[in-house]
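ASSEMBLY PREDICTION REQUEST
Request ID: AP-0331
Submitted by: J.K., bench scientist
Number of chains: two
Total residues: 233
Priority: normal
Notes: Please return the full assembly, not individual chains.
Input sequences:
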Amino acid sequence: NAGVTQTPKFQVLKTGQSMTLQCAQDMNHEYMSWYRQDPGMGLRLIHYSVGAGITDQGEVPNGYNVSRSTTEDFPLRLLSAAPSQTSVYFCASRRDIAGNQPQHFGDGTRLSIL
Amino acid sequence: AQTVTQSQPEMSVQEAETVTLSCTYDTSESDYYLFWYKQPPSRQMILVIRQEAYKQQNATENRFSVNFQKAAKSFSLKISDSQLGDAAMYFCAYRSFDAGGTSYGKLTFGQGTILTVHP
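STATUS: Completed
Returned structure:
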């Protein structure tokens, strides 16, 4: 049972480079989301999706794009990396947007922008 | 907008002793969910315990229990018989019961508390 799989686990980029953080879940969850974790700030929501073809912005969406072409995959794209995007990124999924089901998190991606 | 505050950046406890981590939150909603997550050095986010606001009874999971004070908007985590494996960052989190509007099903996290367990 893989759960939520994130790749890569670590990445170093130069300012201005682009990259995609991959996220896949095998639990047939409708709700998926991306968070970033910064020291002293907890986790903050970047983007979320309530199903294939449906995405929307969270609290801190600037500089990030997402898409949801399938139920399983929810990639996060950095179009032009900036040092302020240095962070740990978590993908999470839940059966649906409402209810008390637990959130399942991936193992995180540590991203450094030089 | 909801906010979650963890006022203890760091806490420490002796092995086998009891420790309580504090969490307060601000909301105008009457129905919501509260969670405690554990993040060990491996970086995984592990659900420890959850509480539905409409339930008056405090949630318990083995050595972990909460003191939920709805009127005071307080949600503390008590760890009994602390073990070395309990050492981690602990996050308190809030989620609206209503997934519509501006909540979009998100979790709102506190800043985290680093728990050290001494042998």
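REVIEWER COMMENTS: The CA atoms of residues 1 and 66 of chain A lie 25 Å apart.
SIGN-OFF: pending second reviewer
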